[in-house]
């Protein structure tokens, strides 16, 4: 039983005492130590008093200060946690703090951040003294550099309650005697002048101490009282107040409440962005929605000038609390994500990720829009499992949203989500929605951005899926009635060329690009010519050296592109020209007034000279990798894209829609404009039908899958020629030579490079073409006469006109 009463009391003290912290030597009855809470390992501070090494008087002072610390509660006072008394030591556990003297000595802040930090700290101590003098009717009597402590959040907390007294407690001597000699330097002058004791007020001694604290905050520890007259380092806004605080007349020193009122006015020392922000967050629960929305909309712009410790440990927790338990809503996202960048990954997973998952489940369009816009700021902190299981199922609903802005932002968000999506999500779900949007969405900008996004995520697709999808999707885009969509399709083909087999380039890509060389839009034509030159350059090099084919097709069947593939560098211009930019959709420009024009200005990236020559040192795979890190803020660069409303272009069906469908039937001639004008009248509809039918039949036969064939595939042929397409597709191989003849009789000599004196040969070529046309016409006439005579030899039908054969 006796062992129970004699057990060690420290066993019930749930804190472990750590290493000592310097800064309080000879200036406090306590020694400061680091500490941790048992179990949670949370950091705390331990104030320790050694009973065996100090006198009974100091021990009584220590126990009195502990009693005051327990009973005094205020946001600007040191926060008490627990205490323990033994025969040898007195332990007091508080929140984790650091002496202000040590903090200022080691502080790395400078410029505006340092000024805001000091202003916020002085404001907090002034507020604590107002609480003591006005609300508690007590005097601290020990305000100095060594009675103030700084938390992890950069907040100044007032401690050192060893000499705290009640006002009017001892009228004969209102100022206590400080036993520690090093603290006598902070005694006000009236302590040694009995004539001024009658003028002492309830706050005069603490205001003198506040003046000393302000001087030390800007100059360092005070060595003697005459140094207080030096005001060179004190801000001009604070000089007048400082002189009042250190006045020799105690009656002229202001009340701390009056100081706060004066300095909080416009132009005052306490009127700045940091103090305004901190005071608003303290009262955020009583603010209305309008005030909160205005506050959060401006907060992001101020965070860069705030000290990092204040942002991470004070502002961010307040934002999370406002989001979780208040009605802050999506307005808190921008500052929350900006502050999240300052966190360690482990802290980010605990604090920010749960909020992100919760927000993605919201049905509010504003919240979803802001999340999608800022996805690049937090996506790299999310685990793959979190993205696939909790975030992507919510994002995918945006593809079917009735609001065009949400659909467009959802498409753009896939750029950032693609590296973390699993096989099914990216190769099935994403492509299924992309196919629908590209072929059926009524917004030209969304169709365009779908093509651009598909080009950017091509590297993340499975090789087999990629080979089936890319060509069909991009060729489909080149048939779009929206000019930017056609240009996006052309440049996407160029940017992803390393994923195409050379046979596919020759049989599908180049035939699809050739009609666009006669596109009504100049920038579409320019992009097409450059892309064709690049593809022809690859084919020409392989023709000269077949051993290069394996290297050029190295990335077709690989999941990870090879960085050593230098055969793709010619398409680098395409990567930086359009696929690195998103087009502005009609929904984004609905509120902007534009000049009435339908032609797009040429992007600045297309002003570069044509780069048909290929480098052998840089891979376009590297360029494609850089696309994944492009900032969304550059999507709408006014220096590159015209501000013309896409709706005006999309609605010009008279010329634009026709130009999107006609290239497939009119862009296969290499003759000069003058030659084309001469020959145009002589081509009949039957021969144009042959030109129209071949691409459609080939696309139908070469379609890789039924799903993509219906969505990404080539436009259907005219109903007038549908039967003819099916009939000729069955005999395509047998009539290949005849179709070549109908194209004008290509000969080997016509594949020669064009010479300088090409104009001199036009006359002979025109004569040759006329002769061949006349021969074909005569041949057709003979065939028609033979068919008529064959019909006449059969059994007579009712209503058939009997004609008398001409006499011989």
From TrEMBL:
Q: Which family does it belong to?
A: Belongs to the protein kinase superfamily.
Region ranges (Disordered): 593-639, 694-808
Fetch the Pfam families from UniProt: PK_Tyr_Ser-Thr
Q: Which PANTHER family does the record match to this protein?
A: N-TERMINAL KINASE-LIKE PROTEIN (PTHR12984:SF3), SCY1-RELATED S/T PROTEIN KINASE-LIKE (PTHR12984)
Give me the stretches of Basic and acidic residues compositional bias: 628-639, 765-788
Q: Where is the composition biased (Low complexity)?
A: 610-626, 720-736
Provide the function of this protein: Regulates COPI-mediated retrograde protein traffic at the interface between the Golgi apparatus and the endoplasmic reticulum. Involved in the maintenance of the Golgi apparatus morphology.
Name the domain of life: Eukaryota
Q: Which residues form a coiled coil?
A: none
What PROSITE patterns does UniProt report for this protein, alphabetically? PROTEIN_KINASE_DOM (PS50011)
Cite the InterPro entries for this sequence: ARM-like (IPR011989), ARM-type_fold (IPR016024), CIK-Related_Protein (IPR051177), Kinase-like_dom_sf (IPR011009), Prot_kinase_dom (IPR000719), Ser-Thr/Tyr_kinase_cat_dom (IPR001245)
Quote the gene name from the UniProt entry: LOC112051361
Protein name, as recorded:
N-terminal kinase-like protein
Every Protein kinase domain range:
15-270
Where does the record place Acidic residues bias? 747-759
């Amino acid at each position: 039983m006796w062992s129970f009463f004699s057990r060690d009391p420290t066993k019930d003290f749930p804190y472990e005492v750590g290493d000592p912290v310097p800064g309080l030597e000879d200036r406090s009855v306590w020694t400061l130590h680091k500490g941790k809470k048992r179990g949670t390992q949370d950091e705390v501070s331990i104030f320790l008093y050694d009973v065996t090494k100090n006198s009974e008087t100091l021990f009584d002072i220590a126990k009195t200060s502990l009693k005051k610390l327990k009973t005094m509660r205020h946001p600007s006072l040191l926060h008490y946690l627990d205490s323990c008394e033994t025969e040898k030591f007195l332990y007091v556990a508080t929140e984790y703090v650091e002496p202000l003297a040590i903090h200022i000595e080691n502080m790395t802040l400078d410029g505006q951040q340092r000024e805001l930090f000091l202003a916020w700290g002085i404001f907090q101590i002034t507020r604590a003294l107002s609480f003591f003098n006005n609300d508690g009717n007590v005097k601290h009597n020990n305000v100095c550099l060594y009675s103030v402590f700084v938390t992890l959040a950069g907040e100044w907390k007032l401690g050192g309650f060893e000499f705290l007294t009640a006002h009017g407690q001892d009228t004969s001597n209102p100022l206590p005697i400080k036993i520690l000699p090093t603290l006598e330097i902070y005694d006000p002058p009236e302590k040694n002048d009995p004539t001024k004791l009658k003028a002492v007020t309830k706050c005069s001694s603490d205001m003198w101490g506040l003046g000393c604290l302000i001087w030390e905050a800007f100059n360092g520890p005070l060595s003697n009282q005459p140094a207080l007259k030096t005001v060179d380092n004190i801000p001009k806004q604070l000089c007048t107040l400082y002189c009042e605080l250190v006045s020799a007349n105690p009656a002229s020193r202001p009340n701390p409440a009056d100081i706060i009122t004066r300095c909080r006015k416009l132009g005052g020392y306490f009127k700045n962005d940091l103090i305004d922000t901190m005071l608003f967050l303290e009262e955020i629960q009583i603010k209305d929605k309008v005030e909160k929305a205005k506050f959060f909309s401006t907060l992001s712009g101020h965070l860069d000038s705030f000290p990092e410790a204040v942002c991470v440990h004070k502002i961010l927790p307040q934002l999370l609390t406002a989001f979780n338990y208040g009605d802050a809503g999506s307005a808190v996202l921008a500052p929350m994500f900006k502050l999240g960048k300052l966190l360690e990954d482990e802290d980010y997973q605990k604090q920010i990720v749960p909020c992100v998952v919760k927000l993605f489940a919201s049905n509010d369009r504003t919240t979803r829009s802001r999340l999608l816009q800022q996805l690049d700021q937090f996506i790299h902190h999310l685990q793959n499992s979190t993205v696939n299981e909790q975030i992507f199922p919510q994002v995918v609903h945006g593809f079917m949203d009735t609001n065009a802005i949400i659909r467009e932002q959802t498409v753009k968000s896939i750029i950032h989500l693609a590296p973390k999506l699993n096989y099914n999500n990216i190769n099935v779900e994403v492509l299924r929605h992309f196919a629908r949007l590209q072929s059926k969405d009524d917004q030209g900008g969304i169709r365009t951005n779908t093509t651009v996004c598909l080009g950017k995520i091509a590297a993340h697709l499975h090789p087999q899926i990629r080979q089936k999808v890319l060509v069909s999707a991009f060729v489909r885009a080149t048939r779009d009635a929206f000019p930017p969509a056609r240009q996006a399709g052309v440049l996407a083909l160029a940017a992803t060329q390393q994923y195409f087999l050379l046979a596919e380039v020759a049989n599908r890509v180049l035939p699809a690009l050739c009609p666009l060389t006669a596109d009504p839009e100049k920038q579409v034509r320019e992009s097409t010519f450059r892309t064709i030159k690049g593809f022809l350059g690859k084919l020409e090099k392989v023709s000269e050296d077949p051993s290069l084919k394996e290297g050029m097709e190295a990335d077709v069947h690989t999941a990870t592109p090879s960085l050593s593939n230098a055969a793709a560098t010619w398409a680098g211009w395409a990567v930086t020209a359009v696929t690195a930019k998103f087009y502005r959709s009609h929904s984004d420009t609905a509120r902007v007034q534009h000049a009435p024009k339908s032609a797009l200005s040429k992007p600045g990236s297309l002003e570069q000279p044509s780069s048909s020559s290929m480098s052998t040192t840089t891979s376009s795979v590297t360029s494609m990798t850089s696309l994944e890190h492009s900032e969304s803020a550059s999507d709408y660069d006014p220096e590159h894209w015209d501000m013309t409303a896409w709706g005006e272009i999309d609605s010009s069906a008279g010329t634009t829609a026709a130009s999107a469908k006609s290239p497939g039937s009119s862009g296969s001639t290499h003759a000069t404009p003058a030659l084309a004008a001469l020959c145009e009248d002589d081509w009949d509809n039957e021969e144009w039908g042959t030109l129209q039918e071949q691409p459609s039949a080939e696309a139908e036969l070469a379609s890789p899958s039924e799903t993509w064939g219906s969505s990404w595939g080539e436009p259907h042929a005219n109903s007038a020629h549908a039967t003819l397409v099916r009939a000729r597709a069955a005999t395509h191989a047998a009539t290949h030579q005849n179709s070549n003849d109908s194209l004008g009789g290509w000969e080997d000599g016509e594949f020669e490079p064009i010479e300088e004196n090409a104009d001199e040969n036009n006359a002979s070529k025109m004569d040759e073409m006329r002769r061949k046309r006349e021969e074909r016409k005569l041949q057709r006439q003979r065939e028609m006469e033979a068919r008529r005579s064959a019909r006449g030899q059969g059994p007579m039908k009712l209503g058939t006109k009997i004609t008398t054969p001409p006499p011989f």
